[in-house]
Amino acid sequence: MQWQETNVINRIIFAAGGTGGHIYPAIAIADELVKMNSKIEIKFIGAKGRIEERLIPANGYKLETIEVSGFKRSLNIKNISSALKIFKALKDSKKILKEFSPELVYGTGGFVSGPVLKAAQSMGIKNVIEEGNYHPGVTVKLVAPKADKVILNFEGTRKLLKRNDNTVVMSYPVRENMKRTGKAEAAAVFGLDGNRNILLIFGGSQGAHSINSAMLKCFKNITGSGIQLIWQTGNEDHDLVNSSVSSNRNVKVLRYIDNMAAAYSASDLALCRSGISTIMELASFGLPAIFVPYPLASENHQEKNARAVAEKNAAEIILDRDLNQKLESSVLRLLNDENKLKYMSSNISSMADTKAASKIANMLVEMVNSSKN
Predict the structure, then answer these.
(1) Contact indicator for 251, 228 with CB cutoff of 8 Å
(2) What does CATH list as the number for 11-174+355-372?
(3) How far apart are CA 126 and CA 120, in angstroms?
(4) CATH class assigned to 183-349
């Protein structure tokens, strides 16, 4: 007989994978549920061969994987293989759910969430899907109509879904270990001067070649004006960038940034892509940004995310194709306008909620308890 406790969740499955932006919010909520019930049984379901195979066990949670992949958005023979995987993934998901018997299944919107939540819905298990991006992805559109709850990060996303009565707008959870420190202390981590302006440049774990290329053309003028750079290049561009700036003491070049909390805390402005996890981490640190949306993102969701933030006067946007023309002038203009930066910082901070994971965890407990009564 399985152990039970009232007013808590005893067993939950998270379907999360593909990117850190899908995984870390689920981990943040799982951590909150553990605080509420130390005996809780938590299992993650992810996709074989993806980043979750490393991240989830590293954060102390059990993971089972299923073989699943996303669909190409154009006619492609690979879609046949993807469709076959979906059928098998649905069958495998049902098997896992039957054996684990969760009280609730929570998905964070990546393609691995699709078969897991569809399985939960067919089995009558409480289920929740979360969509952080402004424009809902294919998986969310498929599972949202029959979900018990759909958590949205943007109010405007509601009008893009067929069903609205099961939606709730709540801030996207950010990792608890992302804590702000003083600027001088954080700048020292990178060997930079905390009394001067710092621009943080990054393009996700792989870097962003277009941002790196455009910055190479203007970094001398930018640093010549007294601005310092923390520049995360990704692996492919690292050697080229590093050799180009090696004699410049105002630039700290890294393949990856392990301590993103220090990087955010040290900086006055970010130049980056506009995935939702990036946006919400910036918001939690009150760091204004110039967003360069990834032009090949599905449904162009990164540009839609960026525009939703820019409408709040919390960020500016440069499209990929305009980088060479606009990058230098935009960076110099913003970093020489202290009042503008403060205004943008205040506005992006208003999007953050440091208690988001806790609020979502409490909502999930209420959902489970209502089904017990």
Answers:
(1) yes
(2) 3.40.50.2000
(3) 7
(4) alpha beta
